[in-house]
Amino acid sequence: MKNLPAILAASTMLAGAASAQEINHFNIGILGGENAQNRIANNQCLVKQMEAALGVPVKLFTPADYDGVLQGLMGGTIDFAILGASGYAKIAIDDPQAVTPFGTTANPDGSYVYYSIGFARKDHDIHSLKDMKGKTFGFGDPNSTSGYLIPSIEIPKQTGHSMKSGDYFGTVKFTGGHEQTVLAVYNGDLDAGVTWADGQGAWEDGFNNGQLRKSVDAGQIDMNQLVEIWRSKPIPNGPLVIRNALPADVKAKAEKVLLDLKKTDPDCQYNVAGGDSAGFVKIDPSYYDTIIEVRKAKMKQGS
């Protein structure tokens, strides 16, 4: 009986493993930056796909800001989300064991990058950052890659000034998300703003993929009234992440739904990805190492 403790421990582990294979719900988090009604409508098709694959109720969670989804993933109340690279970097720094990236969006040409696009109304006579001195510039969310992190690094290098209000730009304002930024610029409430786009396709269509395309599809804007005034260097397309604590079979089934979505339901793929794409494809987590290091550097700077 000397091995009784070991036997009991093994039995406990096996029992735990067996129970861990069962879930009674699955929660999907949708990043902020678009009104909740649109976010739910665009992702409802994914709910049906996941329920069929997992056999449990699936719910969408639409927090007001990016951090609501990040905290949900780390706290265990959200199981899956499509993040921006900067949002994932925050989780990788704060709680490295919380989630794993397994996929990303492939552009129609097969690339895995997008851009932060600076834009203004055509009738405001703004054509570049040089024309933005003393004017109001809008950014989406502090945890957005294209809506803040990358512009906050690249734009000061070009202007020679900080992003603080009154230094170069008259006012630097957070709008709450990409849709809010696009509408604020279009309606004349901001002189210019930044948002995300794949940078491919026609300008008048809002490119192939991104917030401009979403806003065009929704009938919110006419791209002929806007002009591009700045473009970042290529940014890694955001990752599809799943919570590590989930059972292996659940993760495998959920990942398959996303990676097969372009083939099984092209319209759903379009809605979930925010426009035309070549589908979701597998990605190695190391693809985001550079963004993690960039975010760490910004944290050290206190910004």
Name some characteristics of this structure.
303 residues, alpha/beta, D-Maltodextrin-Binding Protein, domain 2, 6-stranded mixed β-sheet, 11 helices, 41% helix, globular, disordered N terminus
Q: Describe it for me?
A:
β1 (26-29), α2 (36-54) and β2 form a beta-alpha-beta unit. The strands form 2 sheets. The protein has a 6-stranded mixed sheet with strand order 2-1-3-11-4-12, sandwiched between helices. α2 (36-54) crosses α8. 42% of the residues are buried. It is built from 11 helices and 12 strands. The chain has helices spanning 4-20, 36-54, 66-75, 85-94, 145-159, 178-186, 211-217, 248-259, 261-264, 266-273, 289-301, and strands spanning 26-29, 58-61, 80-82, 99-106, 113-121, 136-139, 171-174, 192-197, 226-231, 235-236, 239-243, 279-282. The longest helix has 19 residues, at 36-54. The chain has 303 residues and is of the alpha/beta class. Helix content is 41%, strand content 19%. The chain folds into 2 domains: 4-106 and 237-301, D-Maltodextrin-Binding Protein, domain 2 (3-Layer(aba) Sandwich), CATH 3.40.190; 113-235, D-Maltodextrin-Binding Protein, domain 2, CATH 3.40.190. This is Phosphonate ABC transporter substrate-binding protein. One of its GO terms (biological process) is transmembrane transport. Keywords: Signal. InterPro entries: PhnD, Phosphnate-bd. It holds the Pfam family Phosphonate-bd.
